[in-house]
Design brief:
This protein is of the alpha+beta class. The chain is built from 11 helices and 11 strands. A hairpin with a 4-residue loop joins strand 9 and strand 10. Helix 7 packs across helix 8. The N and C termini lie far apart (about 40 Å).
Length: about 350
């Protein structure tokens, strides 16, 4: 399995796209959905979704534990958090006169814990104040959970292999344990067989342009083009070697290919889009400072990170994060991530539980 027919989009994704065509009635629907979530959460479909979600987390832990990873407690707040969050804003609190951030991702902390434990993962709550129009993507929540892992002395290839193994293990586990539940929801999952196809960013851009979605050479893959690429395949795919500047400062520049990063995304098939983002981390303190400056940030804010990188030098790590609600959406074949979470928080809509 690999290439599918162009436009093989999952029916749930198509249903979502139909819903958002009429923006006004969609926003009304979402307001009701989030403000009175307890009214749908008790329906059979959603009690099943939440049970499957619990099994997804169990399977993730089983797989990572079997591979020698140790689960650690994630941070909730800190002086800085992940700045590489594609247009979302960070939530800020007053910590006894200091400005602290609520974690948008625990990436800086998992580098710290990889130094302590070797192979580490968090099941981590994240807050990202997404732009208002993210309500129309079906892929964005303001409050969500991510499984974030890191490997001491790991490489790009190590991280991609764990991503393949993790996805394949979880998909099989859910098929075995919840096959009948998936059937009732009209969802069928094939037997996924790694290795998955790998494209460089340049190859992926060339392919989406060929498929009729215009994507500039030196940017992230645009959401619309990501969906086209995802729909073109019937198994997950990897995109690696993103151009520098399209990603956070912590992604390591490839010493053998200046201007490009040792990082990757994994996309779900069927039009569901991005599943995983990860790669190797920049560990040379001088380079990290330069990259922080290039990204328009103040290195002073990252003082603890820079001190840690010096103390643990050379802290070479690689890893990735996978969103739990997006994974649930894919496995269950749901219209949007707001079906994959009780009490969902969606950009611009409130107050709601």
């Amino acid at each position: 399995m690999g290439h599918g027919n162009m436009g093989k989009v999952n029916p749930a994704v198509l249903e979502f796209e139909t819903m958002v065509k009429d923006k006004e009635s969609y926003v009304k629907f979402i307001e009701e959905w989030v403000k009175h979530s307890w009214r749908w959460a008790k329906e059979n479909k959603y009690t099943t979704v939440f049970k499957i979600q619990a099994s997804i987390l169990r399977a993730i832990r089983e797989y990572l534990d079997s591979q020698g990873f140790v689960e650690a407690l994630p941070p909730i707040i800190g002086p800085v958090t992940d700045p590489g969050i594609r247009g979302a804003k960070q939530a800020t609190i007053d910590f006894y006169g200091h400005e602290y951030k609520v974690m948008s991702s625990a990436i800086l902390y998992k580098q710290y814990m990889a130094a302590v434990l070797g192979k580490v993962y968090f099941v981590s709550p994240n807050i990202r104040l997404e732009p208002n129009d993210s309500v129309f993507t079906g892929r964005h929540l303001v409050e969500f959970f991510q499984v974030d892992l890191e490997i001491l002395n790991g490489t790009l290839d190590d991280a991609m292999k764990v991503a393949e193994g993790l996805f394949t293990y979880v998909a099989k586990y859910i098929k075995d344990v919840h096959g009948k539940d998936l059937e009732k929801m009209g969802r069928s999952l094939p037997d996924y067989k790694p290795p998955f196809l790998r494209y460089t960013h340049a190859e992926a851009v060339e392919l989406v342009n060929m498929l009729g979605c215009r994507n500039p050479q030196n940017t992230e893959i645009l959401w619309e083009c990501e969906k086209v690429l995802s729909a073109y395949h019937d198994t997950p795919i990897f995109i690696y070697q993103y151009p520098k500047g399209s990603r956070g400062f912590y992604n390591r520049e490839d010493p053998g290919k200046p201007g490009y990063l040792r990082d990757f995304d994994m996309l779900y098939p069927e039009g569901f889009g991005e599943a995983i983002s990860g790669g190797e981390r920049e560990y040379e303190p001088v380079k990290v400072i330069a990259r922080i400056r290039e990204s328009g940030e103040d290195p002073n804010k990252y003082r603890w990170l820079l001190e840690m990188l010096k103390d643990f030098y050379p802290l070479k790590t690689a890893g990735f994060g996978i969103g739990v609600e997006r994974f649930t959406r894919f496995i269950c074949g749901l219209r949007a991530v707001w079906e994959a979470r009780p009490y969902p928080k969606v950009a611009g809509i409130g107050p709601a539980p």
